[in-house]
Design goal:
The protein is an alpha/beta fold. It has helices spanning about 5-30, 65-80, 95-105, 125-135, 155-165, 220-225, 275-285; strands at about 30-35, 40, 60-65, 85-90, 110-115, 140-145, 170-180, 180-190, 190-200, 200-205, 230. It folds into 2 domains: about 1-30; about 30-245, HUPs (Rossmann fold), CATH 3.40.50. The structure holds flavin-adenine dinucleotide.
C-alpha cells in the first residue's frame, strides 16, 4: 500500500533533510555585511574634563561622517551581491538614533553595545568590545568601518578589529567593487592611488567623502521609525571584564590641547591697482623688517 506509515515517515525524513540542505546552501550565498558606526559630537571644539576625557553630555551628536560613506559603499555593493547589512555601534542607549539614520539609508538591522562597564574604553578596549559583539551577532563576510572618526581621530579601531577577527584588511579606500569572489578596492597611499584585490572575509575602512552619501527613502524612514534595537551587555557578548572599559584600556592621555590656529590672511581692497599696491607697501612696512 502506497500510504503506509513507513513510507510517510521516509518521505518526511527525505524532504526534511533536503530542505535543510537547500537552506544551508542558500545561507552560504547570503553575503553578510557589518558596518561599524560611531556617534560623535557635532562641534568643532570639545570641552575636556579634569581626566582629559571629552565632555559629551549635552552636546548634539551625528553619525561619524566617514561611517556614512562606509555604509553607502556597503549598500552599493549589496545591490550587486545581495545580502544583509547589519550596523553596530558601541555607545549610550541613545545611539539608537544613529542606528535609525542607518536603517533609513538602507541598512537591514542594528545592534548597540552599551553598559556603564564600557565607560573609559580606549581604542584597544573599543575594538575588543566590537570584536566580541561581531562574533556574537553574526558570521560576517565583509566588514566596513570609517577610516577615522572626527572626535577620537586615531584611525586604530578598524585595523585592530581586523587583527582580532583575523581578517584581510584594506584601509584608506574610496571605491569598492566585487568580482570573481574577490574584493577590488581603490585606496589612497602616499604614492597615489592603488588598486588592490583581496579575498573574503575582509575588513575595509572607507575614507570620509569617498562617495556621495545615500539619502534616506520615505519607505526606509518609516521602517526605521518602527524598529527597535537589541542592546548588548558585556555578558551578552561574553566579554572578559578585564578587557573592557578603564580596566582594559592601557592608553594614558598625557595632555589634550586644541591645534594652533592658523593666522588668517589680509584682504586688500581698493579703487584701483595703485591704491591696492600702496596699501600692500604699508602692510609690508609694518609687519616686516624691509628697510624703509
Ligand atoms: C583613556 C581614554 C578614555 C576614553 N574614554 C571614553 C569614554 O568614556 N567614552 C567614550 O565615548 N569614548 C572614550 N574614549 C574615546 C574612545 O576610546 C574612542 O572614541 C574609541 O576608542 C574610538 O576611537 P576613535 O574615535 O579614534 O576611532 P577611530 O579608530 O578613528 O575609528 C575608526 C572607525 O572605527 C569605527 N568605530 C570607532 N569607534 C566605534 C564605536 N564606538 N562603535 C562602533 N564603531 C566604532 C567607526 O567605523 C570609525 O569610523 C576614551 C579614549 C581614551 C584614550
Amino acid at each position: 500500500m502506497l500510504f503506509n506509515i513507513n513510507n510517510v515517515l521516509a518521505l518526511i525524513i527525505y524532504f526534511g533533510y533536503n530542505s535543510l540542505r537547500v537552506m544551508t546552501e542558500l545561507r552560504r550565498y547570503i553575503v553578510e555585511y557589518l558596518v561599524c558606526i560611531k556617534q560623535v559630537p557635532q562641534v568643532s571644539r570639545m570641552k575636556i574634563d579634569e581626566n582629559n576625557n571629552l565632555i559629551r553630555e549635552g552636546v548634539k551628536t551625528i553619525v561619524n561622517p566617514a561611517d556614512l560613506n562606509a555604509l553607502t559603499e556597503a549598500i552599493k555593493l549589496r545591490e550587486k551581491t545581495g545580502g544583509r547589512i547589519t550596523v553596530l555601534t558601541m555607545g549610550p542607549p541613545s545611539a539608537d538614533e544613529a542606528l535609525k539614520e542607518c536603517i533609513a539609508m538602507g541598512a537591514d538591522r542594528g545592534f548597540i553595545v552599551s553598559s556603564r562597564d564600557f565607560k573609559g574604553s580606549d581604542t584597544l578596549a573599543t575594538s575588543y568590545t566590537l570584536t566580541m559583539a561581531a562574533k556574537k551577532i553574526g558570521d560576517f563576510d565583509i566588514i566596513f568601518t570609517g577610516t577615522q572618526t572626527i572626535d577620537g581621530d586615531t584611525g586604530q579601531v578598524g585595523p585592530e578589529l581586523a587583527e582580532n577577527l583575523n581578517l584581510n584588511q584594506i584601509g584608506y579606500v574610496d571605491k569598492v567593487d566585487f568580482e570573481d569572489n574577490k574584493i577590488i578596492a581603490r585606496r589612497e597611499s602616499k604614492y597615489g592611488k592603488q588598486m588592490v584585490e583581496a579575498k573574503l572575509p575582509i575588513l575595509i575602512s572607507i575614507l570620509r567623502d569617498a562617495n556621495e552619501v545615500i539619502k534616506a527613502s520615505d519607505e526606509n524612514i518609516e521602517k526605521a521609525e518602527s524598529m527597535s534595537f537589541e542592546i548588548l551587555s558585556p555578558e551578552d557578548i561574553n566579554a572578559d571584564s578585564e578587557k573592557i572599559g578603564i580596566k582594559g584600556s592601557p592608553t594614558v592621555v598625557a595632555e589634550v590641547f586644541p591645534p594652533e590656529e592658523k593666522k588668517t590672511g589680509v584682504m586688500i581692497s581698493g579703487d584701483n591697482t595703485e591704491d591696492k599696491v600702496n596699501q600692500l607697501v604699508e602692510i609690508l612696512k609694518e609687519k616686516t623688517t624691509l628697510g624703509w
